[in-house]
Amino acid sequence: MLSVLIPVYNCSITALIKDLHQQLMSSNIEFEIICLDDASNNTITKKNSTVNNYKNVSYNLSKVNNGRVKTRQLLSEKASYNWLLFLDADVLPKSKNFISNYLKHINDNYDVIYGGFTYHTSKPDKTYMLRWKYGKSKEEIDAVKRNAKPYKVVISGNFLIKKETYQHIVSKINYKGYGYDNYFGALMKENNINVLHINNEVYHLGIEKSSTYLNKVEQSVDNLLNLQNTQKIVVSDNDLLRLFNFTKSLKLNYFLSFLHSTLNSRIKKNLLGNNPLVFLLQLYKLTYFCYKDLKK
Predict the structure, then answer these.
(1) Is the pTM of this model over 0.90?
(2) How do residues 172-181 score in pLDDT, each as one tens digit?
(3) Any residues with CB less than 8 A from the CB of 22 and at least 6 apart, and which?
(4) How far is CA 60 from the centre of its chain?
(5) Which is it for the CA torsion 77, 156, 65, 33, positive or negative?
């Protein structure tokens, strides 16, 4: 009935598997948990391999690093059941009813169900502050708001999807890199996929350092720009893409590109500092988008 699929890379999954397994055993459904390790270091794989001791759990090792997108595709091919629950390795369910909360909706005529993300209220070390503040501001969103624009806030770290729907969507995706969720959301909208959002969050525990996250933000903008220029995104609810196209239509992209050239070092100083402003991160994305578009 349910295949829980977890891509793993240099992250301990023992606590996550223990929690999930207890909930799945209590649910009295047919299930499997399949983990695919994307060539982690030996210390991690040795520790994680202990999850093989659980019933219906398999921990598989990849000989090469495929990236998260390809790893999810491989996991879907291994899955035995028609419903796929994708979870990132660095999460933990917020509720002890996490599995049952999803199961309540599998007969509600939806193709995809998103549970949402949440973050602990205690602030992390200052070197991780940017990712935490962005997550609290832009990802920790109630299901009512997410359902108003169901293709906008789609986070691949916690969602349930029909196997045939997933494989149909990912058959159109042939690139690696950060920003996969934006493309997935656009493809779901283009294909009129029936999406439901519920409040069934997981805690996001694996927060990157601010410098690492900012590099990933730039990669996601690069990918988004490439997807638009190659006309792979037909429709989208992505705010950055919408704002970029609006500013470009008004010829403001030249000014914003100039801002990036002159102010990006100052903005970066704030973003990598003790008290980063999410507003400045959004401005950095937009000016970087304009800068890279004109530079191509």
Answers:
(1) yes
(2) 887 666 777 8
(3) none
(4) 22
(5) negative
